[in-house]
Design brief:
This protein is an alpha/beta fold. Helix content is 38%, strand content 21%. The protein has a seven-stranded mixed β-sheet. It has a four-stranded antiparallel β-sheet with strand order 6-7-9-8, with helices on one face. It starts with a strand and ends with a helix.
Length: 257
């Protein structure tokens, strides 16, 4: 396989959930950027992308011209031109974002939701192009590191059904918006039609590379997973279990180049 563009999911694929990019994966990506164009898509904000990915990617500035970043499920796009520049950002109107935040508060009250004893950072975060609920708070991994990852894994194992209930009630309350269960503890609300398939089409449109010349690598390419929507575009996909397997896939692509 010799794709013109390699597209990666971020959380759970290139990195563990909300954790910084590991040095060995950074090195593999630097090698890949010497030969391929690379796009990264994820639900996190631009600030999260910078902290989790950009600050930990070590390669020459020249290679960054081959890297394209699509935070908040490609409702924004950044590329490197002497520095990281915003190409576009598709924001929800403030009134709609307030409606979403109220929706979360009302649904949690309706189901008599009992929050964890301790949370870290914002529970409902306004990312402008989307609003995200995070059961343990947005900063749990930033503050606790590996312990935070384990807490998120434990929460989703215990509360998976509850998370889906909140998602369904929010979708019912906000029929003109898109509600996705994302990551271990998060629920994202975006404009209708915003999913990873939308992201692939945005990448195709802005980079002028046909879908048939791309490959998408993600950890949640299964029914109900937040990467599964890419299947609608016909893009070639590779499902991975995490960063270690992703590194092996990068090496495999390089061997075929």
């Amino acid at each position: 396989m010799k794709p013109a563009l390699v597209v990666f999911d971020l959380d759970g694929t290139l990195t563990e959930t909300k954790t910084p990019l590991a040095a060995d994966v950074s090195g593999a990506l630097a090698d890949l950027l010497k030969k391929k164009k690379v796009a990264i898509i994820g639900g996190g904000s631009w600030e999260q992308f910078k902290k989790q990915f950009v600050s930990r990617l070590h390669c020459s500035r020249k290679l960054l011209s081959n890297l394209f970043l699509f935070p908040t499920t490609a409702t924004s796009f950044y590329r490197y031109r002497g520095g990281w520049k915003k190409v576009y950002a598709k924001e929800l109107p403030k009134k709609e974002r307030e409606q979403i935040k109220k929706g979360f508060r009302d649904v949690l009250k309706e189901i008599h939701y009992i929050p964890p004893e301790k949370t870290y950072g914002k529970i409902i975060e306004d990312r402008k192009s989307q609003v995200t609920f995070s059961a343990l708070g947005q900063d749990v991994v930033a503050r606790l590191g590996e312990k935070g990852v384990r807490l998120k894994e434990a929460w989703t194992k215990k509360n998976g059904a509850l998370k889906l209930t909140i998602t369904k009630l929010m979708q019912k309350r906000l029929p003109n918006l898109e509600v996705h269960a994302a990551g271990f503890t998060s629920i994202d609300v975006t404009e209708k039609g915003i999913d990873k398939a939308y992201g692939i089409r945005q990448i195709e449109r802005h980079l002028h590379i046909p879908v048939k010349e791309m490959i998408f690598i993600g950890d949640a390419i299964f029914p109900g997973g937040n990467d599964y929507a890419v299947k609608k575009t016909g893009v070639k996909t590779v499902k991975v279990s995490g960063p270690k397997e992703t590194k092996k896939i990068i090496e495999w692509i390089l061997e075929g180049s």
